[in-house]
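Hi Y.,

Following your request, here is the sequence exactly as I used it, all 342 residues.
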Amino acid sequence: MPSNGAQTGLRDDGDTAVLRSPGSGDQAGAKVGGGRLRRAGSRRTGNSNAGITPYLLLLPALVVIIVFIVYPSIDEILISFQRLNAFELIGHVTRWVGFANYQSILSSQTFWDVFGRTVVFTAANVVLIMGGGTLIGLLLNKLGGKMRFVLSLTMVFAWAVPVAAATTVYQWLFDEQTGVVDWLFAKAGFHGMAHYDWMSNEYTAFAVVVLCIVWQSIPFVAFNVYAGLTTISGELYEAARLDGAGPFRIFRSVIFPMLRPLFFGTIFLEIIWVFGALNQVLLITGGNPVGKTDTLPVYAYLTGVGQQSYGMGAAIAVVTIVMLCVLMSFYFRIILKQEDEL
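Below is the corresponding structure, written out as tokens. Let me know if you'd prefer a different format.
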């Protein structure tokens, strides 16, 4: 039956024809067009919200970075161009000295001695950390479930111990009067080590610091290596063994090439962490022997806070960061070159 607003007529062949009333098609077209416009508008609104959402999610982290990293860094750079001692700090006096602090630092032989000591200290720690962590990671991959759990649990405890607590333990272990290490040496027949002062010599003092840092850092490397080993197919090991490869050849030809990005990334992080180590050196050695165990972070702290020469300390910190960036740039060039070769 024809709907309301439609007219019927008789065609030449006798069939009935339906004629639309004027304006009915326009109304239908308007309804369809209005629906399309509403849907298109909703899609545009959804797309605009989707474009803003990622930035809104990043906003809290961005605020934290600006407040706790960017602003202090800019403030430190500005302080490095000032003469800021206790008098200026109390009197709120700003005295700009330009690059005088930097000239004083770079012309000081003490600074370059500390810099060389820091590089050697960092290299020794990173080599021991990566070597020990890799060996333990390989061991975790070979152990059974129960032994792997026990070893992992002990490493988590070592990794989770706060730095202040770890340094206190090592101070007790190597104490001149009541230290367990001196007692063990004496019981083993080394009677000259009965009451040995480990902090009286720069090399033995650094040995204690290195041992503490390595002890706390190895678990991170070990877990990283073990996680990487779980991604290597067992068929590669079997193929290497069929070719007559031993453990060292398997590591060199199978494991290391597969985990090369992981090793390079872990080394990068360890260099940053060890190069900036302050608490371990300062708390264990107490600055003894005087001036012989200072690394760049310790040198900056003792100059800025200890001598209340905040401008000079800030300049040392800025130079330290710049030198670390320069050293890491060579490391990145090696990584990129090897990545291109792959």
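Residues 5-19, 21-25, 28-32 have pLDDT under 50 and may be disordered.

Thanks again,
Q.
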